[in-house]
Amino acid sequence: MSASLERKLEKIHCLLDNLVTESSRGIPVVVEGEKDVETLRKLEVTCDVILAKASGKAFQDVLSEVEKRGKNEVILLVDFDKRGREWTKRLAQDLERMKIKPNLTFWRELSSLVGRDVKDIEGLSTYIQTLQRKMGRNIE
Questions:
Q1: pLDDT, tens digit, for every residue of 47-106?
Q2: Which CATH architecture group holds 2-134?
Q3: DSSP 90-139
């Protein structure tokens, strides 16, 4: 069991490293709220963030904000719950119509790695700590 946890943790860290690399190229990342941003910062992912659901923002406002960035790609990292899946699908479709590539790679891979254990991006940091604890690692 420890070996499978080790592999899962390694894959999550690798994915986060890749997210840092991609976002450092100036690709904006769409998340739902401020707590998601705080979690990304805790995980040392600093990037241009677009909040999807902050302050009662309408769906169209999110699309407009993405368009204002003037990028041909955006990383979607919305929550993994039912509503998050619906938002991700809808955002991806609308972005494609706008000729902006919706990058779903990180969302899909993280979702498959964390399964039902994590329902949102803000829970990712705690989940990583839990995996480390289960493996007997010291957590800072």
A1: 899 998 765 778 889 999 999 999 999 999 999 999 899 999 999 999 999 999 999 999
A2: 3-Layer(aba) Sandwich (3.40)
A3: HHHHHHHHTT-EEE-HHHHHHHHHHGGG--SGGGHHHHHHHHHHHTT---
